[in-house]
Amino acid sequence: MIAKLSGILDSVRLDSLILDVGGVGYLVHASPRTLSRIGDVGAPLSLLIDTQIREDAFNLYGFADQAEQEWFRLLIGVQGVGAKAAMAILGVTPPDKLGFAIAAADKTALTRADGVGPKLATRILTELKDKAAKLDLSAGAAKGVKMQPSAGGVVIEGDEGMQSDAVSALVNLGYARTDAYSAVLRASEKSNDNSTLNDLIKVALKELTL
Known about the structure:
This protein has 210 residues and is of the alpha+beta class.
């Protein structure tokens, strides 16, 4: 089982690269995010690797960092999500936003990926929402901002109704649900016990313009 490869970048393709390791060229599949971070041909390169062995293929999937690799493993653990679909999802929704997308039940963020329809997106949201709820999605988690699963995704404990109303208001203004959820989470960290819904929305709007 190959877990990591270090060598020289030989060439880059649309969804893969060839890594020269001691004169042996390894074909490694990678997301657009990883491909955009690997540097120029001829440069040294190290990638974390997931190995998938099938009867008709031996495929290597490379990642520039552990966060992307962990999300890849979570995604392919969902029934119906293969490696190609997982890479496509990571291509349109990078790891730093994928947790928010799942927590916010943002189906659109997933269906933008090739090969992911509404039914599969719903399954991903359903199966991974509890895992997203356990992630540290914000540096403010230490302040006591916690999330819990709900019928509409994941909400922040304490003022669930106001949080959900704020997200809905921002979505109605035209913001993507993932961005709205993230902004409300950050705004909640800055709010106090006397903050109203309008206060929360105003702070969230400022967060969206930063």
